């Protein structure tokens, strides 16, 4: 098949996240399909932006990455979630809309996928699919507009929210296939008009080749922080990923205050909007049992996870998680064989399903501190067995070859294909 994949935030190994579109597309290319990825030239989640001759994009640009054809459309830079991000979204969608005829002539798509976190790309994808006579797929990352309503307190009557709601309803009505990363969305989507026969769950996962062979050694500062903790006789608790409010790292620091003087050292690796505030807390509160390091290359993540004893992942207590969670970093934790402390209240819990750690309530520093103590007190063999269960769970359910086949199988079983 010829697949046209619209994902505003699509990344690559060289640029950084989002990785899911790249991993799915690479599997489809390996299976003999042709994939064109349509993405914006600026995204806040990428570590680096695509460039031409060392400069930001000033015009649409085409490049091939691991057999995937990327079509980049320039879009203005922004910070945060204000008007700058909205201008960035509209600049991207407007250009792709204008390029409809050219994209159809170049790609001749059999399948058009709308997959940009926000749902307004469904209008562009629908136009492309209808004119090309292609199947239309809507891939759901987060439930918009419910997420900004419940997480940011936006009014349902806000003009932006009303527009997003229209886009979501159109997507559920007009898409031939709906793919959701979140596993507990059936009742909600049905309430918005989706025929559940169209729905398939395809969660996030891992790619096996990143876990084959020897991973690159850890950067010196991270390796030294872990070595110093070991020399002091401490159990090492690791966190690798984004440092934003949804990751509940303030709760982890609150737990660290309770754990001062105990043989537990927290090593955090990553970047994000909350990093400076978190670092200021560590300094101001004298949290000697917390070490914060800049982000490491993705290729070093297996080395980091192999070097720690317990991996932490946390969430805020918010109602939106009743529809389920699909965290990328948790898949890495499990693939690495880490025992996991999971601070969450959600519609699903992969840690409990896999039996690879301990789940405690979110936004509860005392519960997090106690959970870390309990895992640290386990015999090393028991922690290792828990980690092995997590790895087996991922290999059975969450590798990208498996997920990519499931995704295209859904596309092939709808509308008579």
Automatic annotation (TrEMBL):
- CDD domains membership: GT4_WbuB-like
Signal peptide region:
none
Looking at the record, the residues that make up the Glycosyltransferase subfamily 4-like N-terminal domain are 16-205
Q: Its gene?
A: wlbE
Question: SUPFAM superfamilies from the xrefs?
Answer: UDP-Glycosyltransferase/glycogen phosphorylase
Species whose genome carries this gene: Sphaerotilus microaerophilus
Put simply, this protein is called: Glycosyltransferase WbuB
């Amino acid at each position: 098949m010829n697949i046209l994949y619209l994902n505003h935030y699509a990344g690559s190994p060289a640029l950084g996240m989002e990785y899911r579109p790249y991993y799915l597309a690479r599997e489809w290319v390996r299976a003999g399909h042709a994939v064109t990825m349509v993405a914006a030239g600026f995204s806040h989640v990428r570590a680096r932006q695509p460039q031409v001759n060392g400069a930001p994009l000033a015009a649409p640009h085409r490049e091939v990455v691991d057999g995937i054809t990327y079509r980049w459309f320039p879009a203005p830079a922004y910070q945060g979630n204000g008007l700058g991000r909205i201008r960035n979204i509209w600049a991207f969608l407007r250009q792709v809309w204008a390029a409809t005829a050219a994209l159809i002539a170049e790609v001749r798509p059999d399948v058009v996928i709308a997959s940009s976190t926000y749902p307004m790309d469904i209008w562009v994808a629908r136009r492309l699919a209808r004119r090309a006579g292609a199947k239309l797929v809507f891939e759901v990352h987060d439930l918009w507009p419910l997420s900004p309503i419940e997480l940011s307190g936006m009014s349902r009557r806000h003009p932006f929210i009303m527009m997003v709601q229209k886009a979501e309803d159109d997507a559920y009505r007009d898409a031939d296939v709906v793919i959701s990363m979140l596993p507990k969305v059936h009742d909600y989507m049905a309430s918005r008009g989706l025929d559940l026969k169209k729905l398939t769950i395809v969660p996030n996962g891992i790619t096996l080749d990143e876990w084959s062979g020897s991973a690159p050694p850890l950067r010196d500062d991270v390796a030294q922080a872990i070595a110093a903790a070991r020399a002091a006789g401490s159990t090492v608790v690791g966190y690798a990923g984004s440092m934003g409010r949804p990751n509940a790292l303030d709760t982890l620091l609150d737990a660290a205050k309770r754990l001062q003087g105990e043989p537990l050292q927290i090593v955090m690796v990553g970047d994000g909007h909350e990093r400076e505030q978190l670092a200021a807390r560590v300094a101001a509160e004298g949290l000697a049992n917390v070490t914060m390091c800049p982000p490491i290359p993705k290729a070093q993540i297996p080395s980091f996870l192999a070097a720690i004893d317990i991996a932490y992942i946390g969430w805020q207590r918010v109602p939106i998680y009743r529809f389920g969670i699909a965290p990328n970093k948790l898949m890495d934790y499990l693939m690495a064989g880490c025992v996991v402390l999971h601070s969450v209240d959600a519609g699903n819990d992969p840690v409990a399903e896999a039996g690879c750690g301990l789940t405690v309530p979110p936004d509860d520093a005392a519960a997090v501190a106690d959970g870390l103590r309990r895992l640290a007190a386990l015999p090393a063999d028991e922690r290792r067995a828990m980690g092995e269960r997590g790895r087996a769970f991922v290999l059975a359910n969450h590798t990208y070859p498996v997920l990519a086949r499931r995704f295209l199988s859904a596309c092939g079983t709808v509308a008579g294909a």
